[in-house]
User: Fold these one by one.
Assistant:
Number 1:
Amino acid sequence: MDTSAFQAWVHEASLLITEHASRLTDLDAAIGDGDHGINLRRGFQAADEMIEKSESETDTPGAVLRTVGRALISKTGGASGPIYGTGFRQAGKALGDVTDVDAVLLGSALEAAFNGIQQLGAAHLGDKTLLDALGPAVTAYQVAVEDGGDIVAATRAAADAAERGLAETIPMLARKGRASYLGERTIGHEDPGAASTALIMRALATVAAGEAS
Amino acid sequence: MKKLINEPEGVLNDALVGFAAANPDLVVNLEDRYISRGPTAGKVALVSGGGSGHEPLHGGFVGYGMLDAACPGEVFTSPVPDQMLAATKAVDGGAGVLHVVKNYTGDVLNFQMAAELAGDDGLQVESVLVNDDVAVENSTYTAGRRGTGGTVFVEKIAGAAAERGADLAATAAVAREVNDRSRSFGIALSANVIPATGKPGFELGDTEIELGVGIHGEPGRARGQVSTARELAGVALDAIHSDMPLSGDVLVMVNGLGGTPLIELYVVYAAVSEWLEGHGATITRNLVGNYITSLEMAGCSITVARMTPELTELWDAPVQTPALRWGR
């Protein structure tokens, strides 16, 4: 994937999140404070705009992702800003200055995003957070690459796994963030952060397959 | 949704424009989104912030003897590190900056990033976490105790210490002491409505109340039934007392959550006074009114701080802010 593919990923993610903003907000209203879709839409639209405006500075895939990270931190607010921002920044750092990212390197970047978010939020798998979608996605991606899959197959495997991971958050009890105060009342609901992560991974698979809108 | 607003997405900006017009002695930076005074050379600066919808917190507490700057986020959404960094730089008087952070995941993460960025720029920043809400019992499996009414006490008393020339470490120590000595418990009679969604944040039946509610409508310990003010004050104070035994001199705040008339807050205050007297505690200072609200939520929170003569003296020190002023 080259720089323009990464720009396309951000654009596609922004479109998907905008399209699903009210669903994300409804999920958050059920177990959080009902602003996830609103905040993330603001953040991703800002990230998309910032990339369009600063084309000269975002001339490598890593620079694109680092810029996205900064934009999300600057514009999103709430917990999602620092969390997603850190994920994209760490992924961007893992890519370094490489201009064409192969399947193996993208896998390291996804893993770096997972580790960065895990460290920042101190959440564990099973706590009903976005990690429950991102973790399975990273694993599925790496398994697909080890099995000889290309970037198209691996990102598709990752997106599918993120969606399965999202479904698996339904019976979980939230232990992090504002949802944690609801305790058992969070059981039976999808986690909004896992839902947005599934959208971002789906956007990546769509772009990798050359099917972006 | 019936609200006195223009467009839902413009609420914060419109409110800040109004706040600026009403308080010409303060700086309202609409671009970077912060409210400030100063800087005051040689004084430790206090910066706080958080989601909007809790007014007068925090912007209403910017002024002499209290905060130097406040960073308002979108309604119930933490502000971003850029705002905090801009505010921190604007008010730094060369003696360091204390960030007063309420314990919510978003606030904690964003302030943490702002403090790191400020440190990179050579500024001296310390952070104090406020987590006074006793309603959260299971801190191991949650994001921990929330910062609520104790925030007002922390900002007032640490602000007074800074005004008197305490250095950064001493100001932070006072702030932590006040937090350690403060406990809160909230009760909601009705839900709030976030302008951007237009829907109630949670559902309460006609006779239901939420015992231990958080300032965004987070659930507390239990759903209860409407009861007398005397009984509900007892529930709140029992919860506080079993967490931190109350005796000696106390500072008490009976705080309206936004949709409860003052006359009811005084009814509650009478019950609180009676309860505390019966348990051997003496109210030496008090606040009754709307200081940390939750949009139009009806209900109140009760905050009690066990005072020392030193803390009472700092409480009495002059303060001149839009929402709290005396002695000057």
Number 2:
Amino acid sequence: MMTQIVFYVFAAVLVLSATMVVCARNPVHSVLFLILAFFNAAGLFLIAGAEFLAMTLVIVYVGAVAVLFLFVVMMLDVNFARMREGVQRYAPIGGMVGGVLLVELIMAFTHWRVASNIDQIGHLVPSSPTRTNTAALGDVLYTHYIFLFQSCALVLLVAMIGAIVLTLRDRPTGRRQNIDRQHDRTAADSLEMLQVPLGVGVAAQGGFLRPHTSYDVAAVPGTYGTQAWREQETEEETQTALVVIAPATGTKGQDNA
Amino acid sequence: MADFFFHTMPGQLVLIVLETLAVLVPLLLGVAYLTLAERKVMAAMQLRKGPNVNGPFGVLQAFADAIKMLTKETVIPSGANRMLFLFAPFLTFSLAMVAWAVIPTGNGLAIANINVGVLYLLAISSLGVYGILIAGWASNSKYAFLGGLRSAAQMVSYEVSIGLVIVSVLLAVGSLNLNDIVLAQRNVWFCLPMFPMFIVFFISALAETNRAPFDLPEGESELVAGFFVEYSALAFGLFFLGEYANMFLMSGMVSILFLGGWLPPLGIAPFTWIPGPLWLIAKILFCLFVFIWVRATFPRYRYDQLMRLGWKVFLPFSLAWMVLSAGFLMVTGLLPGGAG
């Protein structure tokens, strides 16, 4: 009795929230309703005694997949007015797809035949009370269905590698971090006292001040500074503009070259 | 009396309510005093006094803060999504509470001693990100939103290594039941044979609770206060309570998975006199102290360093350890039977 009431509550909320996923105007609300639907599906699994599946559903779909959905949907720049314009244009096509699916579902259900040996196939819940759900699932997955199970894992691995290959960009001018080099860097490598002549500014050096040694190794030649400065630089071999204070001598400065 | 509680429907309901109160009231009191403890401990580490005005040693400071929080005005920013804006703190708070249903405080002493306890904890902790993400989005503010996005990426990343560490522990236990996990540590706590995983889990717990040095979602210096910058009064208080309750929960998970839960360090006389729940509380408090200690010691990570640590260091390391420990258990024949 109690179980039935709980079942109908879960089922009703599940169907309602699934409907709201499609009907909600705000896509973020849609994703949140989708999460509610996942939750209720997990509740239904719990009622059926499939506790492992229920928890896995929450961990995988709610904890990982839906977070990424929400992540993407929140960052989308959605124009609600334009979305509503589209409704009338796409309604016939959408209705047709829905109609085809409905007819297919009706056909499938009217011709549903149950295998004759259904009784011999294991049930959702393990029959023995000492064997937990998780162990029972493992018994089946890692014995009879090991190859299918491993193939699933391989398909997922291929998908993962594919996603990485598609998004990995290795542009030659891209700025990459080399963590080891960052750690090895000392003050002597990266600091140099420079002095710019008063009233001249740094425009002559390409708009920024940087020690000589650093841009020779860090940046790709020809990508920094202004065009005019680069030309001047190649002619004069980087000797005039930057002046170093020599700490020991205490003189005003000497040529860097 | 016992008959009423164990064999009638209303009696069982009353029993469940009483059990829940027995867990939540100490938890909330603990949260209130954790805020005080954090300020006191950090003050001591920085040679300050900390709160010392309200009551002796400032013990009433926690209540003063709570009353201040409750009497402030709730401000809802214009353009915010009202319902989701108010829903987010309640979600964060209630998630931090419901997870305690499965934490065993003694042998079989849990509100719900379920077979998939670890998965339940993993599921609940993976939901924590929604409170933050929804709060960030519903506030209609760019700082809050950036904080929410950072937090989502951070929590998803560290959940992966937490999951793998838990799998390594489960391999040695052979059951998903939290009670069995503690009982499997009767001879030796898992923090000794799995010391590297203990450290990885603890650091991931810091990241999962958005604590220093991984408190980038809050990042005062660049995001003002991150995802809850627009919150005030009770809603802010709920976030605050939820975060600190999450610290308790993560400390509880560390204690149960690696520090032997309610078990005493040695099963001999002077240690066994102290009841199990007190041992668990002591271990949780120790972990919380380390949380605070870390906060007072380490500077905040840069965001790319945080991601690098999660994906390029912890993930391969915990994966390799999982394979290694599975192989070790298999070869030595220590792999627990599939009875669980």
